Amino acid sequence: MTTYYDFVLGLIPLVLFGFGGGLRLAGLRFEIAVAVGGLLAMGLIGHALFVNAPVDSTQSSSTESVSTGTSAPMAD
């Protein structure tokens, strides 16, 4: 099953070389084209890590904690 993160891993080199190569063919200097492609790839990685962060899928247990209504007194 292909997930979002599989697509991200596939898009990283595609963005880096695709945009970088496209900008190079459009006439930009090599250094600028690679830098722009790298920034776009970094943005894609940042989105995958921080905006749509991977989380472990944990199953909720059937036992829930029950509150007794009493709590420890707070110190002043």
Strand content: under 5%
Largest sheet: none
Distance between the termini: 55 Å
Parts with pLDDT < 50 across at least 5 consecutive residues: none
Structure description:
Helices cover 58% and strands 0% of the residues. With 76 residues, it is an all-alpha fold. The longest helix is centred in the first third of the chain and has 22 residues, at 4-25. InterPro entries: DUF8015 (IPR058328). Residues 57-76 have a biased composition (Low complexity).
Observed structural traits:
mainly alpha, 76 residues, 2 helices
List the topology elements.
Layout: H1 4-25, H2 30-51
Transmembrane segments: 7-26, 32-51
Region (Disordered): 56-76
Biased composition (Low complexity): 57-76
Can I get a quick summary?
This protein has helices at residues 4-25, 30-51.
